[in-house]
Amino acid sequence: MIETTESSAHALVDLRAHAAPETAVAIVRTLVRFGRPVLTFAYDHGIRVVPLRRHERYAEASAALSRLGVDVDAWPAPPAGLFVVEERRVYLRSRSPMTVAHEFGHALDCALGAGVYRSGIDPHVRAAFAASRNFVTPYAATGLDEYFAECVRSYVGVNDPASFWPRATRERLRRLDPAMYAYIEALFAGGFAAGAA
Ligand SMILES: [Zn+2]
Which of 87, 54, 49 is nearest to 70 (CA)? Predict the structure, then answer.
């Protein structure tokens, strides 16, 4: 089989037994924006993307969440997606481009850190975050992990049409946060592999 960007993206999506195959289409459409080297890097580091079935709860899909008693399903507004570090799994309730790209940003952070978020321990990210005055999105200001995920999402320029947030773009990242722009650009230039722990 010829490996294409699309087939690399498909390989990441774990539909499990009962999910409708067309579910993968919207997710793949966003994942291909990251490029094949990055998708391959994620796959090789055990990252998988798991869409929830209709009405399925996170705790049903994730053994770790169930065991840890993390009841995100009971939140007033359950998250559109989340990343479970110990499983290296992105769980998606929504297939929106913004959700897929943001959560995949967390997945890349975890793959880079070989099972822990690289953003939490990398002095370059910590320094850029501490020095940052204008964040690429409001959510990027809420913590090192969200900072990393939102900067990655900006670099690939994935947005939802209906979002009320400022559009996250590569140009906006370059303008507002040159240090983090350079950091993310170097990661993409090396297919993330050079930055891997
Ligand atoms: Zn997040």
Answer: 87
Expressed in angstroms and rounded, the spacing between residue 149 Cα and the centre of ligand 1 is 6
Q: 155-186, pLDDT tens digit by residue?
A: 999 999 887 888 999 999 999 999 999 999 99
Residue type, 107: A
> Edge to edge, what strands does the sheet with 48-51 contain?
48-51, 89-92, 81-84
pTM exceeding the 0.70 threshold for the entire prediction: yes
**Domain count within the chain:** 1
The predicted pLDDT at position 194 comes to: 63
Size of the chain in residues: 197
Question: Residues within 5 Å of ion ligand 1 by Cβ?
Answer: 146, 149
Residue 172: domain span: 5-195
